[in-house]
């Protein structure tokens, strides 16, 4: 299913008319901005694939999918409010087709959860954050590609500082009881994610030393 077909089908699941064509065009333009290497349509497509695989386990599959469409709509590595701005774009799109406050708040909260600064409080939030982190449990070649892509997005950061900050982020994930929140993702990706992060940390520590 191509993105246009999927986009239209999603809004039908929400019992809402499809937003004006420029909303999807704007989203696609955002995911193909020149400063992006990882947070692109490739990442969005991978997230949607995981959404399909886990769909029967979430409480509101359409809401989870819509949140994933918008979760990286705004991406600027020099700012700290990307998730909040992405969430605002999502609520604007919902409002434009008459979606109610309850749906707007739900999607807004799901998108904000991808900031990964709090323990997920609902089943669906847990799946959204795990889907966003699923790349960490990717096979070795895809994970290696992901690491190159992340470095490209932070090309403006000096190497020693990038290694230091990246080490802090990955170590914080390993310090959790588990990287993933849901049983679904722990069973499928936790072991590989642990291996990937330990291998990455070994390289990063050499770079920051």
Largest sheet: none
Task: Estimate the helix proportion, in percent.
Answer: 55-70%
Compute the CA-based radius of gyration. 17 Å
Number of separate domains:
1
Strand content: under 5%
| Multimeric status of the protein | single chain
CATH top level is Mainly Alpha
Protein structure class: mainly alpha
Shape: globular
Strand segment count: 0
Q: Could you give a short description of this structure?
A:
The chain is mainly alpha-helical and 209 residues long. The chain has one domain: Catalytic domain of cyclic nucleotide phosphodiesterase 4b2b (Orthogonal Bundle), CATH 1.10.1300.
How would you describe this protein?
With 209 residues, this protein is mainly alpha-helical. The chain has a single domain, classed as Orthogonal Bundle (Catalytic domain of cyclic nucleotide phosphodiesterase 4b2b), CATH 1.10.1300.10. It has ten helices and no strands.
């Amino acid at each position: 299913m191509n993105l246009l077909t999927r986009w239209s089908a999603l809004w039908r699941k929400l019992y809402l008319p499809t937003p004006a064509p420029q909303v999807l065009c704007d989203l696609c333009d955002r995911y193909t901005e020149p400063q992006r290497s990882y947070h692109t349509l490739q990442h969005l497509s991978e997230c949607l694939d995981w959404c399909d695989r886990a769909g029967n386990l979430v409480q509101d599959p359409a809401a989870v999918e819509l949140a994933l469409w918008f979760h990286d709509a705004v991406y600027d590595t020099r700012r700290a409010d990307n998730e909040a701005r992405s969430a605002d774009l999502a609520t604007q799109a919902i409002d434009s087709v008459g979606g109610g406050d309850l749906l707007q708040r739900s999607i807004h909260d799901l998108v904000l959860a991808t900031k990964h600064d709090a323990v997920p409080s609902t089943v669906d939030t847990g799946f959204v954050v795990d889907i966003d982190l699923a790349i960490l449990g990717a096979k070795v070649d895809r994970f290696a590609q992901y690491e190159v892509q992340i470095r490209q997005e932070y090309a403006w950061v000096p190497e020693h500082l990038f290694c230091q900050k990246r080490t802090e982020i990955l170590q914080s994930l390993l310090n959790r009881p588990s990287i993933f929140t849901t049983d679904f993702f722990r069973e499928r990706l936790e072991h590989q994610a642990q291996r990937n992060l330990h291998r990455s940390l070994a390289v990063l520590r050499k770079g920051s030393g």
